[in-house]
Amino acid sequence: MPESRPIVQAPHRFHGGIHPPEQKAMTRDRPIRDMPLQARYVLPLQMHIGEPARPVVQVGETVRRGQLLAQATDFVSASVHAPTSGLIAAIDEQPIPHPGGLSSRCITLIADGADTPAQDLEPWPEYAQRSALELRTRLREAGIVGLGGAVFPTPAKLATDGKTPVHTLVLNGAECEPYISCDDRLMRENPQEILEGARIILHLMGADRCLIGIEDNKPEAQHRLHQAAADDARFTVVSVPTRYPAGGEKQLLKVLTGIEVPRGKRATQYGLLCLNVATVAAVYRAVVHGEPMIDRIVTVTGGGIVQPENFRVRLGTLMSAVVAEAGGYTQGTDRLLMGGPMMGFALRDDEVPVVKATNCLLALRPQDRPAEPPPAPCIRCSLCADACPADLLPQQLYWHARARAFERAVDHHLFDCIECGVCSAVCPSHLPLVDYFRFAKTEVWAAEREKSKAQTAKQRFEFRNERLARIKAEREAALAKKREALARNTAASDDTVGRYEPNPVPEASADAAVEAARARAKARRALLAAERAQSTPQAQEQNQEPPL
């Protein structure tokens, strides 16, 4: 079919940004391979932003692939499903992917090798006949979250305030982080899944157009999606200049639409909705095929990997097994990151599971990364402010974070920082600016949690005092009522005794009654005396009959 519409060039630019070495050649042309079935899976109950899921299975229970293991507990939460069939071996604390090497509650599944499906979710190929509420409920049941890195539960993101209708869906295919190519391969190999998932979202939100933003260093992905969407006028593929971080939500929206979403506002309040291309592909599988989110595509790359690859990995697979499937580590590898070199974090151990946020495993040797000289004093060059894509003042944030003046840092819009790492990359003093910002955010969150706990304790204390005071007042009121009733009864009795006159008994009748009572008493005494006399031994001898 001839292409009737050309690929559009992005009409706008965002502030700041850099163009680091791409390093995508190692995996760009490596097709997606399915990771072999493993013997053991470890599934954290919190693979998303929000409240942890609640287990609905017991240790020793047999489950099937896709079966619900843990239920979402809050509006911002996501369910967890079995990546394969097998036996629940444990529900306990296990190491998870975390920069601090922390542990969290996880479900351990021992695979039986059969990979038996559960078929809990009914396929909906006729999704156009389903309401928006039904579709959002399906996505919640399937545990769909954003796969671009934020892992925000997708059903919560689709729930708008109802005041501003969404008219434009933006698909994020920029994939601006160096080394990572999982979205690129998905767009080249499965464009129809992405487009069909986008059609589901367009139907759900009532939107009338879809912009697909792809960086211009991915011409094959642009061509495949443009060709697949040629017969649907709602879709437009937009070529975005290769500049990090073009894949940030606000930055991509600015580049594609010219709309700059201000601080404290959501894109949906401006009629825009931005989703990652892998997220809408997962939406398609959940709705049309009834498949919950049990896997994702992971790029395994870097100079520390023998054979870099793109794998479709089931959630819960240990990262050590993924690296081994890619040939293992090369000699001299000393660092493993989850994510890219800009926004990823170093792992202390590879015996941790792949989670929904794992888009890349990057193994590096000392020669694969720039030297890290010791930090020098800030020279106030303002290069960080010039490069910041969020248009912040990183230098001021750094001073306030370092001085633990967290309120001042918040006043300088600390939480608008997307932690892209651009400021650290351009800093001539080699200051770890993003590390300071993350530290400040953690401290603010901890203080807010403590404040919330204190407020909750105060409210409970005040409620208890109010309850005790209310009970005391109710008791005193009840006692007062009883005292009032008793006083009224006593007063009434005293008044009655003073003025009540019973019917007089005739004097003669009274004397006769007294005499009769005396006579009865005298007769009774005589009877008792006779009985005692009969019971003496002498009387008993006299009363005995002579022997025959």
Structure description:
The protein is α/β, with parallel strands linked by helices and 548 residues long. Among the domains are: 8-34 and 119-361, 3-Layer(aba) Sandwich (Rossmann fold), CATH 3.40.50.11540; 378-467, no CATH class. It contains 15 helices and 18 strands. It has helices spanning 132-141, 154-158, 182-189, 191-205, 219-228, 249-257, 277-288, 319-325, 383-387, 394-402, 406-411, 422-426, 433-499, 507-534, 537-542, and strands at residues 8-9, 32-34, 40-44, 54-55, 62-63, 68-71, 80-81, 86-95, 103-111, 168-172, 209-215, 235-240, 272-276, 295-301, 309-314, 335-338, 345-346, 360-364. It has a six-stranded mixed beta sheet with strand order 2-15-14-18-16-17. Strand 8 and strand 9 (103-111) form a beta hairpin. Helix 4 (191-205) packs across helix 7 (277-288) and helix 10 packs across helix 13. The longest helix has 67 residues, at 433-499.
